[in-house]
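To whoever is on call:

I kicked off a structure prediction for a single chain this morning and the downstream step that reads the tokens threw a length-mismatch warning. I double-checked the sequence; it's 134 residues and nothing unusual in it as far as I can see. Pasting both halves so you can look.
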Amino acid sequence: MQQDNSGMLKGLIIGVMAGGAVGALVALLYAPKSGRELRADIKEKADGLMEGAEEYISAARSKAGEIVSDAKKRSDQLITDAKQKADSLLEDADKIISDARTKAVPLVQEGTRLKNAVKAGIDAFKDKDERRRS
């Protein structure tokens, strides 16, 4: 919305300047003056328009600098926010992995005990079978 107003204001200023220049030129050309006076008036009006244009350009540069500064501040804030989110996600992931490891250790130990028990059962069965055969 603000950009639309800025564009309208810019168009209005350019229109006023262009209209003023054309109006001044027409008035000078139709005024009953000598060539020397006419040239002096045209030079005076042109100088005035150049000053106005320079002021407009200076104001535009100033506004552009403000916009760039504001954009830089916003981008810096976005980067800071993104870094904080990434750090938070990494902390959450580390916690999940740590929790998974904590829960996995008893399961691995239980699996190892089960494996040893099965192996002992197989070995006992083999011993019993060998004794029966002899």
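Update from on-call: the warning came from a stale cache, not from the record. Cleared it. Sanity check on the structure: DSSP finds two helices and no strands in the chain.
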